[in-house]
Amino acid sequence: MPKYVIERKVPGVGHSTQEEMEKMAQVSNDALRKLGGEVQWLESFVTDDSIFCIYVAPNEEAVKKHAQMAGFPADRILKVETVMDPAFSEPSIPASMASKDKKYDKSIRQ
Fold first, then answer.
1. pLDDT tens across 32-59, in order?
2. Where are the strands (E) in 10-94, listed by range?
3. What are the CA-CA distances from residue 76 to residues 22, 48, 50, 51, 70 (Å)?
4. Are 74 and 67 in contact (CB under 8 A)?
5. Which residues lie below 8 Å from residue 43, measured CB to CB, with a gap of 6+?
6. N or C: which end of the chain has fewer CB within 10 A?
7. Is the pTM here over 0.90, yes or no?
8. What residue ranges do the domains of the chain occupy?
């Protein structure tokens, strides 16, 4: 299922109280339950004036529907094309060469 980054512009949100953040999460979770698992909220990053949310949903319309039901803005909805991390630059190795803890001896690749 596709993953989305949603930017919600909310002036001053970074200075919200714990209780205000809990209320926002509760409203979001209530809307998610009403959608019956169609949309999943993975996590959010709160900055001074925006919330960047990571969602899994079948399509952009489902993300918009959640925002509307919860009463949240969805100023930008961006479909994630690729997930990248520091290990992205490492060459792939066959699973049979990786150890149980998913690390491997670099000498194997030489």
1. 999 999 999 999 999 999 999 999 999 9
2. 40-46, 50-56, 76-79
3. 23, 17, 11, 11, 16
4. yes
5. 53, 54
6. C
7. no
8. 3-86
Task: Report helix, strand or coil for 18.
Answer: helix
Which residue type, as a one-letter code, is found at position 92?
Answer: S
Please identify which residue in the block is written with the tokens 């991390």: 85
Measured CA to CA in angstroms, residue 23 lies from 18, 49, 51 at distances of 9, 17, 14
Nearest-angstrom CA–CA distance, 75 and 85: 26
Buried b (16+ CB within 10 A) or exposed e, 20-46: eeeebeeebeebbeeeeeebebeebeb
Least confident of 83-87, 97-101, 106-110: 106-110
Torsion sign over Cα 83, 89, 90, 96: positive
Between CA 72 and CA 68 the distance in angstroms is 6
| Nearest residue to 8 (alpha-carbon basis) of 57, 59, 45 | 45
